[in-house]
Design brief:
Blueprint lengths: L2 H14 L1 H4 L8 H13 L13 H24 L2 H8 L2 H12 L7 H19 L10 H23 L7 H20 L7 H28 L2 H8 L1 H12 L9 H16 L13
Helix pairs in contact: 1-10, 1-11, 1-12, 3-9, 3-10, 4-5, 4-8, 4-9, 5-7, 5-8, 6-7, 6-8, 6-11, 7-11, 7-12, 7-13, 8-10, 11-13
InterPro entries: EamA_dom, EmrE-like
Protein name: DMT family transporter
Organism: Chromobacterium indicum
């Protein structure tokens, strides 16, 4: 496993911990949690604040990705059932793979990348829903918001690879600006928040890990690695999230979990290993 994939897996593992870590913060306004968390995450690189100065295109892309993702996702949760919105937001790994040839020069798709991503997404959807998903036209605005979150994260990630490379510390600036925007939305649209001491602790952990260090690792993974492979790995997020919930006693594996796990692992293998090791000649790129 190369260095880029290790960075990607580190980011995915931290994002997968959100469901477990945020159990005590669900009652708080979401943009308050995101705003404070992102501001705390920015502190990881504040000692290298000079690195926050980057070309305008890089800065715009960073804020577009981090703030835009949370904006669309939280509105999706407000307008549609959380489970449905979560499944649709997990289209981002598939979109990363499919959009790579369009947004990253010199990238081609092989059949293994497409098949692996489709199988991985199907497994991700299965483990989130337990095989039960009922979409309603009344929630269409929420579904569109969830798909918007997926599009934002996929395109942000690919643009990170396409734009001139910058220091990973610049991500702290993106988090700081995104945190300010999220707090602005909180004060404008949400009720006042009054966190308890344990809730403040959970916000701090969320800020320093999933909303801080994870973005740094993801930035490094996108600059170093193959976006097709990195996208395929993204399907492991709901799997790891579910396993963490089970380990903490907050969830139990249902009957479809074994199939979902096999699909996610198999899809990741198809998408990340060389085609000649997995597929016959007629299926290779």
């Amino acid at each position: 496993m190369n260095q880029a994939m290790l960075y990607a897996l580190a980011a995915i593992a931290m994002w997968a911990s959100v469901a477990t870590l945020s159990a005590l913060t669900h009652a708080l306004p979401p943009f308050f949690v995101a705003g404070v968390g992102l501001m705390l995450g920015s502190l990881l690189t504040v000692r290298r604040i000079a690195d926050w100065k980057v070309p305008p295109k890089n800065f715009a892309n960073g804020v577009y990705g981090i703030f835009g993702f949370y904006f669309f996702l939280f509105n999706a949760y407000r307008l549609a059932p959380v489970m449905d919105a979560t499944v649709l937001s997990y289209v981002w790994p598939l979109l990363m793979v499919l959009l790579s040839p369009l947004l990253v020069p010199g990238t081609r798709l092989g059949a293994n990348h497409i098949l692996g991503s489709l199988i991985g997404f199907a497994g991700a959807a299965l483990i989130v829903t337990g095989g039960k998903l009922s979409l309603s036209m009344a929630a269409l605005p929420g579904y569109l918001m969830a798909l918007g979150a997926a599009v934002v994260w996929a395109t942000y990630s690919l643009f990170t690879r396409r734009l001139p490379a910058t220091s990973d510390n610049a991500v702290g600036g993106y988090c700081f600006a995104s945190g300010l925007l999220a707090l602005g939305l909180h004060f404008a649209t949400e009720p006042a928040a009054h966190p308890s001491a344990i809730q403040w602790l959970m916000i701090a952990v969320l800020g320093l890990l999933p909303m801080g260090a994870a973005f740094l690792c993801w930035n490094r993974a996108m600059q170093l690695g193959d976006p097709r492979q990195t996208g395929a790995l993204g399907n492991a997020t709901p799997l790891l999230s579910t396993l963490m919930l089970v380990a903490s006693g907050q969830a139990a594996l249902n009957g479809s979990a074994a199939l979902a796990i096999a699909m996610i692992v198999g899809g990741a293998a198809l998408g990340t290993l060389p085609a000649e090791r997995l597929l016959p000649g007629w299926l290779r790129a």
